[in-house]
Amino acid sequence: MNLVRVLVQAGDPLTRSAISGHLDSRPNIEVVATDRHTQVDVVVVVADRMTVKVASSLRKVKASLGAPVALIAGEITRADLFTAVECNVVAVLPRGSATKERIEEAVLTAAAGGGVLPANMLGELLKQVERIQREVLSPHGLHTSGLTPREIDVLRLMSDGLDTAEIAVKLSFSERAVKRVIFGVTSRLKLRNRPHAVAYALRMGVI
Fold first, then answer.
1. Running DSSP on this structure, what letter comes out for residue 115?
2. Torsion angle of C-alpha atoms 105, 18, 33, 31, degrees rounded to 10
3. Do residues 75 and 81 make contact, with C-beta atoms less than 8 angstroms apart?
4. Which are the contacts of 161, defined by CB distance < 8 A and separation ≥ 6?
5. 139-203 CATH fold
6. How do the domains of the chain map onto residue ranges?
7. Pairing assessment for the beta strands 89-94 and 4-10 based on DSSP bridges
8. DSSP-assigned states of every residue in 121-165
9. pLDDT tens-digit map of 35-87
10. How far is the C-alpha of 75 from the C-alpha of 80, rounded, in Å?
11. Distance from CA of residue 86 to its chain's centroid?
């Protein structure tokens, strides 16, 4: 496994030292100092609760480092969870159950592109995603991917190798309408070309 570089942020120096010391002792993790200009793969943030100050700090981390965040919180509400997710938090550990092993697991999972959430928080997050799809996106003909059903149909046929004329026949559109759909997707989502649009749809899991 590649070396995972971790930045630890905590208001309490003793907590920061304890977490940093444990993580730095692991063979596949290196804790970096805040004053070092180096790549950071994961940021561990420790906070009592999600205050305005903590949220602001998380947004600065997202803007400056772009690294996933593992948040160790003494208290976190449903609203806090949604704010945290917007701030690039991919792992949430209740402070009372944040053992050294769980912190290490959260760091490695975050570095690998995964996420860690308590079961009740995961349920809340899924409910929120479903509510957004039902109340916000679906009434406007949109999917969580940002694509409309018509765009998804066109991209699915493109991924099967069909050209513009063949897609038009399959969907009973004019060729001009198919081209408008493709242009709309690529321009709205800032995609470079048709293969890029198909790749985007594949990554979003809609085709």
1. -
2. -30
3. no
4. none
5. Arc Repressor Mutant, subunit A (1.10.10)
6. 4-117, 139-203
7. unpaired
8. HHHHHHHHHHHHIIIIIGGGT--TTS--HHHHHHHHHHHTT--HH
9. 566 789 999 999 988 888 888 888 888 888 888 999 999 888 777 777 888 88
10. 9
11. 8
CA 101 to chain centre: 23
Mapped onto helix, strand or coil, the DSSP state of residue 3 is coil
Instruction: Name the CATH superfamily housing domain 4-117.
Output: Response regulator (3.40.50.2300)
pLDDT tens column, 136-150? 666 766 666 778 888
**Tokens 């490695």, residue?**
108
Half-sphere exposure of 87 (CA within 13 A, CB side): 27
Write out the two tokens for 152.
């998804």
Distances (CA, A) of 79 to 28, 109, 128, 152: 34, 24, 10, 32
> What phi and psi values does residue 196 have, to the nearest 5 degrees?
-65, -40
